Amino acid sequence: MIFTKASRADFWTGLFWVVAGGAIVAMSARLPIPRHLGASAMTSPGMVPGLLGAALLALGMILSLRAWKGRSVLGPDDIVDPASVSTRRPVVAGVLMVSYALALTFGLPFTPLTVLFVTLFIMAFNWQGQNPRQKMITCGGAAVMAMVFAVTLEFVFEQLFFVRLP
Questions:
Q1: CA-to-CA separations, 129 to 112, 118, 133, in angstroms, rounded
Q2: Domain spans of the chain, in order of start
Q3: Which of 90, 102, 105, 154 has its CA 20 to 30 A from that of 14?
Q4: To 10 degrees, the CA torsion angle through 87, 90, 92, 93?
Q5: Would you state the pLDDT for residue 34?
Q6: Does 76 have pLDDT greater than 60?
Q7: How far apart are CA 110 and CA 149, in angstroms?
Q8: In sequence order, what are the residues at sequence separation of 6 or more whose Cβ sits closer than 8 angstroms to the Cβ of residue 79?
């Protein structure tokens, strides 16, 4: 197999995530289950890290296999000019996320704050190149999506996982 530069990078990056995900799964499986508190294997402290590690492992395998078959994310003719890469989008995302975390830290209510955060996040990254009518549709759709997400998230954490949200 002859690797292009992009597929070689994808292959090694995928292998890194396979090893990291496997290590996370192995370490989370070794966490003790506090049976004296009524915990089972499904409620053990290693359950969520194990699932996340398994997801990293699976996605790493997919990335490596795609690269092995020659289907990398960037094709052999795709060249990214560093001068054309903008830092605006990551900065906007960072400012929104830090603002959301700080607002939660100061005790603002979770559900309305999450609706506002998700709406602003969706609008910030789907606003360019739209006419006023499309912007209104994007705004309405973002608000509906944010409300469904926030209410679902609050229900799952508070009713299923018994975690109090701010």
A1: 28, 20, 12
A2: 5-68, 86-160
A3: 90
A4: 180
A5: 83
A6: no
A7: 12
A8: none
